[in-house]
Design brief:
The structure is a homodimer. Chain A is mostly helical. Helix content of chain A is 76%, strand content 0%. In chain A, helix 5 (86-95) packs antiparallel against helix 9 (160-186). The radius of gyration of chain A is 19 Å and the shape is globular.
Chain lengths: 230, 230
């Protein structure tokens, strides 16, 4: 038998299912982040702030369709692929509804940053085409500078804000980790993706632990950029 | 004195103020329509419908920034320019909050159509550069086919829906006209714009009446496309 091409990860049905799962999770995450950002923008103190936050929201929404198209390319159904992830994201958002504009800003910054870090880690284990798509979908929507400036200014005006926001950041991290654990426990395909397969190296327990400490370090650094203890 | 160029409408401060007013009204209208569409998308029966409606919303949001940039070019302050129009749009949306998905669809279709017709009529009275911008901002975001198909299907499944939606369409038209009248009465600059000025013809009362009957005819036609009596 002559081999016409290298064995491709996407030819493996289990791998394909896992990638469809991953795209579904990211797409639903971006869709729900979009909706929450538009909601949170209603808390804006000025119309200029509202437009800035709404603009970030629409950039996020723009990432959804390419992910859904990739699911279709891989033979999946985009709506079905998002389905298993509704609950985790919806519970996360319900548990972390911001009570004011600043909480909304910190949530956008910390939550998106954490999600992006996590997807970037996972992207190391997937084929190059899908990886490029995932990385493109994580492009910063301009949050960073805008949020950092606003949060630092608020703390400068009233230092007590810093303590309240530090607590809020810890709560966001806790809720995100608890939902991520639930998803990992329920979705065998994603766990299998991390464990490796045809032409893909996997993660052993030690590597998994190092990944979680990288996520935590990045979170700490983001909180510090906002001027907050983590 | 040698004249280096034709007198331009935008050199007239009163005209410029009126155009800034107009851009402010359209920009705030698009911004508030964006927010309402994202809200109404939450009523979607399926995730595919939600994505379709959210996608229309983001197209609408994309029109806001160019209008604000034009206000700045004309020497105005974008946020201040939108300010006089908050109340009219907010009252309109509060009075016409959809109670279900179909009401939301009909509102998006009928409301956007009416607003677009109105701005197109006014665009006939402004300078070419601003007119091109206004017309670009009114590009259909793909609502038409999507909404017509969904509403017609719902009526086919349950003909009583047709009666309820026809009443809803009348209510939307009534609320829109009552807010438009309030704005016209309060904003002298917009009324002056319609009355004409340097190098611009104006509207007399007969022409104004004809304009309103064109708006009504177009509304009737849109309702008919949805399969509804108006």
């Amino acid at each position: 038998m002559t081999q016409t091409s290298e064995p491709q990860a996407v030819d493996d049905p289990a791998y394909r299912a896992a990638v469809i799962d991953l795209m579904g999770a990211i797409a639903y995450g971006e869709l729900s982040a979009f909706e929450r950002l538009v909601d949170d923008a209603k808390l804006s103190p000025t119309l200029a702030d509202k437009i800035a936050l709404s603009s970030m929201a629409t950039v996020q929404f723009g990432h959804v369709q390419p992910l859904l198209d990739r699911i279709t390319e891989l033979g999946g159904d985009p709506v079905a692929a998002m389905d298993p992830f509704h609950k985790a994201f919806d519970v996360f958002h319900a548990a972390t509804a911001p009570s004011d504009w600043l909480e909304g800003l910190v949530k956008a910054y910390v939550g998106d940053g954490l999600a992006a870090d996590f997807y970037r880690e996972i992207a190391a284990f997937i084929d190059a085409d899908t990886r490029a798509l995932v990385l493109a979908s994580l492009q910063d929507a301009g949050q960073a500078d805008f949020v950092v400036e606003r949060v630092r200014r608020a703390i400068a005006e009233d230092p007590r804000v810093g303590g309240r926001m530090a607590l809020w950041g810890r709560r966001l991290m806790g809720e995100a980790l608890s939902q991520a654990q639930r998803v990992a426990a329920e979705r065998d395909s994603l766990a299998a993706l991390l464990a490796g397969g045809i032409d893909r190296p996997g993660l052993d327990l030690a590597a998994m632990t190092r990944m979680f400490s990288r996520l935590t370090e990045n979170h700490t650094q983001r909180m510090a950029e906002l001027g907050l203890a983590s």
